[in-house]
Structures are given as structure tokens and as C-alpha cells.
Fold:
Amino acid sequence: MSKVPDKARPTITTRLGVSLPTAIGALLFAGAIAFGSGMVGAPSAGQGSQEGVAQGGDYRGHGGLNPGQGQDKPKPPAYDHPDKQQPDPVTPKPEPQPEQPKPETEQQQQPKPEQQPDKPKPPAPSGPMQLQAQSGLGKVKLTWSKFAGEGFGYYKIVRSTDAAVAWPLGSGDTLVGWTHDPYQNWFKDFPPCGTAFSYRVFAVTGDASGYQVLSASNVVTGTAQCEAPPPDPTPMAFTVSVVDGGVALVWEKCTADGFMAYKVVRSQTNADPMYPLNGGTELIAAIGDPNVTSLVDTNVASGQTWTYRVLSMANNGSGWYPIGLTPAVSVTVP
Structure:
């Protein structure tokens, strides 16, 4: 077979009037148009076919929207987008609060003073008490009429250096005694002797509200007498002798005023025994009858030497002192 020269063979390009690549591209373009028309409808000429190819399948599933008309794509909710902030959870509403009272005026805000209970009135006094003073040796005795009113708490006995005797105490006043017994209507004071003092007695209440004077006595003056120095003791005759069983003592009877007792003393070491007792002296008898003037001391032993004395004693309230005494006489028991 004879070969046909290449130049003589017809080509596809010659038959179709286009080159093969151009023909293939036209077929693919036509297929794409046909596929796109089935999904998005028929685009308007010169617009939809090019946009459909350029955007690929971006409009699939949206029906017959024509992308060439510039309609916006629907946007997903904001909370589906990862860059968007999630909505805040629902905050529960606060419970209703009770209504606050309206502020009062400044005058209303001030606290109201509490009503104070009425203080009990002190009992009415029963009248002044009558006071009397009796001066004595080293003391002043006071007596007064009993308080007869109501509300009694105490008697207050006040001594003063002047006539202005007061309760509560004033200048120069001294509380010298008190008692809560309404029937105790006497008192003994022992002030410095030889000085005149003023006295007054007050009947007062004793409740929690404090002392209140219910009645006051008159003012009286009293002076305690000073003790006179004791007189020198009167000498008494005295005899001492040894008898069977002891030593006999006989002395002269005391006739001085104020006699209280005979004090019989003795000593083995003191040549001048006295009473109140001095060193080495012992008391062997105290006789209160001034007519008894003798005694036998049986508490002796042979060979002992004793010194005896008898003293007549008085007592002025401050102590014993002698108003008569015998001489000191010594004797030795054979």
C-alpha cells in the first residue's frame, strides 16, 4: 500500500474547523453549563454561567437563589462561631427586699427620755427628840427620848467642838456612836477630860437612797471630869508573928472613903512588896470586908523568911490604887 503523505491526511482540526484542544475545552465547558443549570437554575446570559464556575459549589443547597443578583448568604448564629462570645447565663432576679422605713426627722430620731419613777418621799418627822447630858469621871452619858416616827434606820450620835452640830458631819463634828435599835436611847462617850463638847442625836433613814434626817435632838454640852491624882495612902498599924502552923498577920482597919478591898502580899526577895504587884511579890489574899483585919499564912516552911504587907485598895475605873498601907514586916519561920 502506498503511503499517503502526511500533508495529504485530513486532521480533526481541519474537519471541525478548530483544533483538538479547543474542541475538548468547548465540550468541558458545555458539560459544566449543563450540570450547573440543573442545580441553580438558568442563569441570565453573560452573568450566571461565569459566576457559577468561579464560585464552584458555594450556592448548592440554597434553591433558586441567583448569585449574580448579589444576595447575601445567610449568617449562622453568633454563638456557633468559634470567635464569638457565648451569651451570658440567665441571672436570677433578686428577691424583693422589705421596704426600709423612712428616716425620721432630727427631732424624731432623738431618743425619748425614759420616765423616771417617782422617788419615795421620806417619812414625816415625829418632832425633835429631847437630849440630856450627864458629866462624870472620864465620861459623858447621853440620854434622849425615843424617836416615834416612821422610816427609822439609825441613831447617829455626833460630838462637836462648837454648837453647830450637823449630820452629815460638818467642820469640827465627829461621829462617836450609832445604833439601829430604836429602843437604844442612851450612850456613853469618853472624850478628853476637862474640855466642854457639844452633842446632838439624829434619827435617820437607812434605805438605798441614802441617809435622810427624820428628826434631830436639841444640842447639849458635856464635859468629862478628869481623874484627880490619888491621895497619899494612910498608914495602918501592922503586926506579924509566928504561930503554930504558920505566920499570923493583924492590921488596922481602913476608914478612908473609896475602900474596895484589902490586898495581902508577901515576898522572899523584895523588901518592899506592893500592889499592883512588883517584882518578886505574890498576892496571898484579897478581902472585900473592911471589918476583917487578920489572916494566918499557913503556906510556909521552917527556915523561910518572908516579908509581908497589907494595902487598903480603891478603884476609880482606871485601875487599882492604895488609900492605906501597912509597913513591910519580915519574919523567919523557925
Q: What stands out?
A: The radius of gyration is 72 Å.
